[in-house]
Amino acid sequence: MPADSAPSPSSRAPTVSLALVVLLACTVSVLGAEFVLNLAGPNIKWRLFPLNVLLLAGTAWLAIAVLRRPLPVLAGVLSLFWGLELVNRLKIRTLQSPIHPMDVHYLGELWTLDGLSSTAVSALLLSVCVTLVAASVVWVGRRITVRPASATVRNAGVGVALVLLLGMAVTPHLDATAPWISSLGINWTHWNPGKAAREHGLLLDFWTHLGDAYAGSPSRYSREAVQGALARIDAVPAAPAKNLRPNVILYLVESMMDPDILNMEFTEDPTPTLHRLLRAGGGKVVCPGFGGYSANTEFELLTGMAMYFLPRNSCPHNQFVRRDLPAWPRAMRDQGYETIVIQVGSLAFYNYKSVYPHLGFQRLISLAEDPSVALAPGERFA
Predict the structure, then answer these.
(1) Segment 97-156, tens digit of pLDDT
(2) Which residues, listed in sequence order, are joined to residue 364 by a DSSP beta bridge?
(3) Could you give the percent of the chain with pLDDT greater than 70?
(4) Which residue of 105, 226, 339, 371 has the smallest Cβ count within 10 Å?
(5) Do residues 287 and 297 lie in contact, with contact meaning Cβ atoms separated by under 8 Å?
(6) d(Cα 122, Cα 137) in Å, to the nearest integer?
(7) What is the per-residue pLDDT across 205-255, written as a single tens digit (0 to 9) for each?
(8) 54 and 165 in contact (C-beta within 8 Å)?
């Protein structure tokens, strides 16, 4: 045989269909990322694992169908996925909360945290992930020949991918599918979001929160309905008392409660100041929030507006408060009070710097941004 007719190494490489390459690559990526970065080992629900693989494979297939460069596009999609898992790991380590689509509203405050303050380290880790994924795809590509998908297979794959991606984004907001969703073991109202991401898989958990930004109008809601409700209120505002301007302090303490409700015996009162204040008058309230989103409880208390009418996992401070609203601080200001808010943490959190003026606060103070404020023994602002 002439020397120039000898088969090249590439011609001897096995031929594998593109669909199989995409499916295997996505399976390995999801398996590795969930165990290495999301730490889902003891919590993952294996019956949901295929959904994570299919979501990633569907995304990759759509991108390949549009850009028509199978291996480079696959490498890019897998790199983005590993980058998402890395950012999720950093966020859970710092905030005990997984990454969600609405976190784009939190980018300004995330970099103020100690665990995420080093952008260079985060960028380096992300670069390592991208490099490893790209190198893996190149290494595999040199050892196999990828057979392009036919037009029929490509179009069918695009259709299935679109149905899957759109369906999983809409399903959590359709009550009619609740029994089917529950049978899969998906819990959209999980009180522990970090554990939910490990049980569901990060990609499934992330994708099904895409609809959190949409706030539709309640049924039977209209301007006429609101005016009719206001017309039924016959209360006449009381005239402000003259020369009676007591200081009014609203003190919000996250995770605070009266230890007496535990029905335990103590050697001494653990909260004497609280009990002394309660003797002057007090009562009980039901907190509308649990396990995070403390700003939502604050929003309900200050405005009287219910989170019931807003999307699950949404945050009005970051998403919806864009103009002046009727609120308790504004009402106090209209009565002649000076309204001041004092935050322990940074005003970058929950968009406070923009939201508080819309609620009627005139002065904004952050202890975390005041270098003269001493730290508590635990090196935190208390």
Answers:
(1) 788 887 776 665 555 555 555 555 666 666 677 777 777 776 766 666 777 777 777 788
(2) 341
(3) 77
(4) 371
(5) yes
(6) 23
(7) 888 787 776 777 777 788 888 888 878 776 666 666 666 778 888 888 877
(8) no
14: Cα within 13 Å, side-chain hemisphere: 6
Q: Is the dihedral of CA 59, 183, 170, 163 positive or negative?
A: positive
**Token duo for residue 302:** 């200050």
Cα gap 62→319, rounded to integer Å? 29
Residue whose tokens read 């196999």:
144
Q: In this structure, which amino acid lies at residue 266?
A: F
Phi/psi for 32 (5° steps) reads -65, -45
Question: Would you give the distance in Å from CA 178 to the centre of its chain?
Answer: 21
Burial 333-363 (b: 16+ CB within 10 A, else e): beeeeebebebebbbbbbbbeebbbbbbbee
| Angle between helices 49-67 and 151-170 in degrees, nearest 10 | 130
Phi-psi region of 16 (alpha: psi -120 to 50; beta: other; left: phi over 0): beta
Instruction: Give the single-character DSSP code of 36.
Output: H
Closest by CA to 92, choosing from 360, 239, 292, 346, is 292
The answer to whether 172 touches 181, Cβ cutoff 8 Å, is yes
Q: Would you say 84 and 99 are in contact if contact means Cβ atoms under 8 Å apart?
A: yes
- Dihedral sign of CA atoms 264, 265, 267, 268 in order: positive
CB neighbourhood size of 280 (10 A): 6
Can you tell me the distance from the alpha carbon of 34 to that of 52, in angstroms, rounded to the nearest whole number? 10
Which of 169, 144, 140 minimizes the C-alpha distance to 59? 169
